[in-house]
Amino acid sequence: MELFEPHEKINTTFITSPSNRLIGKEAICNYPNRIHLTPVDCNRFSYGESGGGGIGFAIKSDNNVKISISPNMEYKGVIEYKPIALRAAYILKSALNCNENFSITVNLSKEVKSHVGLGSNACLMTAICAAINSLYGKPLTDKDLMKLIGANFAESYMSKCVLGLDTGIAPSTTLKGGFTFVTLDSIIVWMNKFDFIPYSFILFPNVKRASFEGAEDDNMLQRSLYEDIKSRGYKTYEIVMDLIPAIENKDIKKMGDIIWNIQFSGTHLSMIQSYEMFGSKIYDIIGNLKTIGAEIVGLSSVGPCIYIGCSNFNKIKNYIEESEIDYLFIEIESNPIDIIVNE
Question: What average pLDDT does this structure show over 284-312?
Answer without folding.
Answer: 94
